[in-house]
Amino acid sequence: MAKLYINTAIKKGHLNPELQGHFSEHLGRGIYEGIYVGEDSPIENVNGMRKDVVDALKEIHVPALRWPGGCFADEYHWMDGIGPKNTRKKMINTHWGGVVEDNSFGTHEFMELCRQLGCKTYVNGNVGSGTVQEMSEWVEYMTFDGVSPMADLRKANGQAEPWKVDYFGVGNENWGCGGNMLPEQYGMMYRRYQTYVRNYHPDHPIKKVACGSNAGDFEWTRKVLETTFRRTNPKDHGMMDGLSLHYYTVPKGWGEEGKGSALKFDDSDWYTTLGKTWYMEELVSRHSAIMDVFDPEKKIGLIVDEWGDWFDVEPGTNPGFLYQQNTIRDALVAGINLNIFNNHCDRVKMANIAQMVNVLQSVLLTDGARMVKTPTWYAFYLYQKHQDADLCESDLDTEMIGDPSHPVPNMTKSVSITKDGKLLITMTNESLTEDYPVEAVLTGGKAVRVSGSILTGEMHAHNTFENPDAVHCVPFTGASVTDTGIRFTMPHCSVLALEVELA
Ligand code: AHR
Q1: Which residues contact 104 (CB under 8 A, 6 or more apart)?
Q2: To pair with 457 at 20 to 30 A between CA atoms, which of 41, 111, 156, 487?
Q3: How far is CA 242 from CA 130, 274, 290, 404, in A?
Q4: Per-residue pLDDT tens for 281-315?
Q5: Is pTM, for the whole model, over 0.90?
Q6: If 0-12 CB within 10 Å is exposed, 13-18 middle and 19+ buried, where does residue 132 land?
Q7: Predicted pLDDT of residue 154
């Protein structure tokens, strides 16, 4: 019997809703078709946004959305995407699939999407191929509420009120597609560019996010912080609110032989994928440790603004569109990552799955007028009440299983007290065969009632347009209240959410 000790009286930190954030880039059918179909589309839409998609995203309370990239961000010139649609520039999206980008989805459309979703806005600026002036004017266009050339232009384009920009990314992957820079070089650029990301709303300051590392490039983190954040120099304080981290789970690696299929995989691929996902725990811990040296007060958040599975594209689809199916394995990947982010909420302030619709590890897939919720959508559904909750002290007996070169714990968990005062336990069971009995022992509160919801199935189970409801959550009735807490058996291949009412 595995013991899960929970102390409801010890709060380890606040779970920012943004830990369940999303990312959507001008890539493949992510935005066009997947979200934005235009006002004249036969697909039901509100101001051009697909109603089915927006409704499904609202069900999981998308808290924040990052846009327009990704690599696309460092080639994006925002003025191409404003004004009357018939005058917007048409161009080739050289980075992703060589298709025509007609700029019909631009700043106004992004803000409209976030309004419909009720989510925070995370805009990613262009450092790689853009100027300081261009970035500064974009911020002025979006947020200035007075008389100025950019505010006047926004008004002339139909938006009288300024919008709120919650987060602004100063470049993306500037170690790679965003300019192939060295860390010191980027650090210097960051100091300059961020100066002109002005805060026009003192009561709603923009949080500035610097480009962080690619996976385990700890040198990048250290050198960028050395260049941008000299703790003893007051001038450096306030330059940065977040430092990003990108890490993808790629089962077979980035080599020519392929990354691995989303649907065709065996037991060994299952464990390797989950083991490689668990590497996120080490990445977050080690990048946080470096940040602690520079910023022991933890004022700068680690922003994991790209994470998720990256498989080979589905056969027959455009290789540049990164379209992949999504199985129970993806739900486990999501559940493990979301538990990791929760457990590191002292440092991790936002995380954004890549990407929201039709690209990489999506929560939704579309085909013409049809839409399916993926197993990953259900993982977010199960975890959503962690948003704005307080993380509790907890400890679970686990053992490492799977591929010895990429081991994974047999179970992961995170535990919080939700806004409505309940205990929320989210867990994953990585084993393909073993169900684990768990005895949860509570200190600081007494369990009165327990209910739950579970996502489980054969590892390849997934939803298709022909069979859209093959995978979904069902009530979990296997948990019972004991004198000291609760008891349940955690089924193999599953993601579970338990809500416990406390006395
Ligand atoms: O999410 C796809 C791509 O992955 C992004 O454009 C880039 O930032 C990363 O390399």
Answers
A1: 32, 36, 38, 85, 88
A2: 487
A3: 21, 27, 14, 34
A4: 999 999 999 999 999 999 999 999 999 999 999 99
A5: yes
A6: middle
A7: 98
Q: Which atom of ligand 1 is nearest to the CA of 178?
A: 8
Backbone torsion region of residue 448, taken as left when φ is above 0, otherwise alpha when ψ lies between -120 and 50, otherwise beta = alpha
Catalytic residue (one of 306, 466, 499, 501): 306
Contact between 313 and 358 under an 8 Å Cβ cutoff? The reply is no
Q: Tell which residue, 332, 320, 304, has the closest CA to residue 360.
A: 320
Q: What is the pLDDT of residue 324?
A: 98
What pLDDT is stored for residue 232 in this prediction?
Answer: 75
From the list 33, 101, 173, 281, the catalytic residue is 173
- For residue 319, which of 24, 26, 28, 25 has the smallest C-alpha distance? 28
Q: ∠ at Cα 26 (25, 30), nearest 5°?
A: 75
Question: Which residues contact ligand 1 via a Cβ below 6 A?
Answer: 25, 69-71, 172-173, 306, 354-355, 360
Task: Indicate if 393 belongs to the active site.
Answer: no
Going by the DSSP 8-state scheme, the letter that residue 385 receives in this structure is: G
The Cα–Cα gap between 446 and 275 comes to 35
- The structure tokens 């960028």 sit at 224
Q: What is the pLDDT of residue 503?
A: 93
State which residues of the chain have pLDDT below 50.
none
| Amino acid identity at 66 | R
pLDDT of residue 325: 98
Neighbours of 341 (CB within 10 A): 28
SS3 annotation, 217-245: CHHHHHHHHHHHCCCCCHHHCCCCCEEEE
